[in-house]
Known about the structure:
This protein is α/β, with parallel strands linked by helices. It has helices at about 20-40, 40-50, 60-70, 75-95, 135-145, 165-175, 185-190, 210-220, 245-255, 270-285, 290-300, 310-320, 335, 350-355, 395-410, 415-430, and strands at about 5, 100-105, 110-115, 120-125, 150-155, 175-180, 200-205, 225, 235, 260-265, 300-305, 325, 345, 385-390. The strands form three sheets. It has a six-stranded mixed beta sheet with strand order 1-11-10-9-12-13, sandwiched between helices. A five-stranded parallel beta sheet has the order 6-5-4-7-8, with helices on both faces. About 45% of the residues are buried. The model has no long low-confidence stretch (mean pLDDT about 95). Nicotinamide-adenine-dinucleotide binds near residues 184, 208, 256 and 363.
Amino acid sequence: MTRQYIKSVAPPSTTNGVKTGPDVASIVAEVIADVKQQGDAAVRHYSEKFDKWSPASFRLSEEEIQNIMSTVPEQTIKDIKEVQENVRAFALAQRATITDLEVEIRPGVILGHRNIPIEVVGCYIPGGRYPLLASAHMTIITAKAAGVSHVVACTPPILGKIPASTVAAAHLAGADEIHIIGGTQAIAAMALGTESIPQCHFLAGPGNAFVAEAKRALFGPVGIDLFAGPTEVLIVADDAADPFTCATDLLSQAEHGPDTPAVLITTSKAVAEATLLSIERQLASLCTADVARVSWEAFGEIIVVDGGLDEAFALADEFASEHVQILTREPREALTKMKHYGALFLGKNTCVSYGDKVIGTNHVLPTRKSAHYTGGLWVGKFLKTCTYQEVVSDEASGKLGLLCGRAARAENFEGHARSGDLRAHQLLGEEIEW
Length: 434
Ligand code: NAD
């Protein structure tokens, strides 16, 4: 099988390579250390430094939220509510599939688990470049559908202004507090807690390389949803695909940021070449071309495979891209042929932008190949599945006790063995003394 690169990155790769590296890691480490030591004072320092933002209070009061809401156009509020209904309906349907469990695995031995919502969650809604208000629906609505009792929302200012529609979305989604703070300082404040921000048990939400690295660095004391960094898109197309559609949909993601891998894998050289031309034409009229072009030139790839769709799906799996769009005659084939993706978009009537903005599935999705081990954000991520056990008869406990005594001694755990022995001797009616 040979692969032809109609457009490649240098070197041709499946690394979904985006900016990380020592500079991002060291900036993030410095901010985290300072927020740990100095709390709110450090948050203010870095907010001034990175966002030129230092209001009297980062947290919005109820009155400020109402005033901000009143500036958002009525149609935008209606649209936010409609999208939030989709996101809530799907999240609740997913919640209904998660059940508590209790089973008697041998006579008298009861094992079970309960799904308990995390109590305090921090939701990050990105916004350095665009007001990503859809991330408010995805994180906050989903947390609330899972039963999270307290949601702290943080979002950055955009060019020194409060993003009104993001605040409206966060408020309508049910955020319990909203802070206008961005980047590492927001992530660190929610993970570590400061004088004015409660320490969260879990952080959710996408973001740029700084946000993703901050979540990674803080994982441990605080839980994180997944590695949802700079966005990625990959299209699998056959010879029936429309090159104009391929080009439009690749650029729809390339505009996210200058570090967006956008990849077309196709079985058709004609589709590949026409898509490349169409991208150049479409960039000329795209008002976000300053970002999309940088991204496309650095990370855009068009690959023609000669091994048919099976090879295309296998190569797509190697990328493990965040968004995979299937533009083939039989798009549902991908459901059985592919294993590694954040979300699949099946057929020409379905586009990644629907998933990003309106359709109701979650848009917080794994990037940088983390789709090999996780799917995207969903209600299950906000639940702890905690087990319990009960042995309800002396006989069952006695039998287990004998087994436990032997199993523990095989590991040289005499103290564990005694706990088992105690129950076994009770069953046998023997006195026991250590
Ligand atoms: P952002 O909110 O993630 O980041 C903005 C913040 O970054 C600023 O507030 C600032 O504090 C910090 N920052 C910027 N430059 C810095 C520097 N040089 N040093 C230290 N801190 C700095 O917003 P964004 O930048 O617009 O990025 C949003 C990202 O979210 C995009 O990359 C997009 O692709 C991604 N995204 C991913 C998903 C997903 O599910 N994977 C979904 C939506 C969006």
